[in-house]
Amino acid sequence: MAAKIFIDGEAGTTGLQIRERLASRGDLQLLAIDPARRKDEDARRELLNSADLVVLCLPDEAARQAVALIENNSTRVIDASTAHRTAPGWVYGFAEMAEGQREAIAGAARVSNPGCYPTGMIALVRPLVEADLIPPVWPVTVNAISGYSGGGRSMIAEFEDQASPAFSKDAFRLYGLSLRHKHVPEMQLHAGLENPPLFAPAVGRYYKGMIVEVPLQLWSLPAQPTLEEVHDALAAAYPGGGFVEVASLEDCRALKGLDPEGLNGSNRMKLYVFGNEDEGQARLVALLDNLGKGASGAAVQNLNIMLGLDEGLGL
Predict the structure, then answer these.
(1) Known catalytic residue: 116?
(2) Is residue 175 domain-shared with residue 234, that is, in the same domain?
(3) Per the residue annotation, which of 18, 55, 116, 210 is the catalytic one?
(4) CA-to-CA distance for 103 and 221, rounded, in angstroms?
């Protein structure tokens, strides 16, 4: 029997992408709410409780309210909001993050889908913390740029709708200037850091695609690792064959630049180790689609794992 799936918030950017990825699947039954009743609590409660698995694509508070509407012990949940990414009782939905994470997702009733920026940052930093190359107390810096779709409908309109009073011609924009970005707590927790990283996000005038970078002064780290040792730690954490790939040092040395749109339309993420061995400096970089591995692709991957299916279905 096909599993019944309800996407609560399917009209949003992430919800639309998830529905598109699932629409042709014969192994799933997609439940839908009457558009006129999207804000009808009783209608939503009925669908939330009749589904085998619910994907929440809602603002944080609305996601918490949706979970509270589930009155049975059988409906499982993937939450794509920030609401539960550090909450007790929720499994973090980054299958490649650690040994046993995929199995934890498979058996979970509640899974929090990772944020786009944290996916790249955690992928780069956690293996180095676990390998004792970065101390948990280290002051980590994260620089990143995303396509404007990462800001949802309001930012998409700001960059695309010339009739809007908020229309912007910015080619590049720094934001998060108060250093209180909502992704920082999950970065700190799941990367294994004792202090919040300094996070410097930016948005560019392109729809989707993301680069997340962690610069390191290797000479200042207690272990003083070489570029090869850093690369070896990442390669050991992601041995290949899945959605996370580590570029060879030879390929990294040959590159003259990196396009943030390079993995658009996929659920893949590629990690790079650039650096200057003589100066003991490194630039660790993750390339991914902020709407793919950074959002809808990861949600579909988690859905497949939770249902015991091939995790690459629809991806």
Answers:
(1) yes
(2) yes
(3) 116
(4) 33
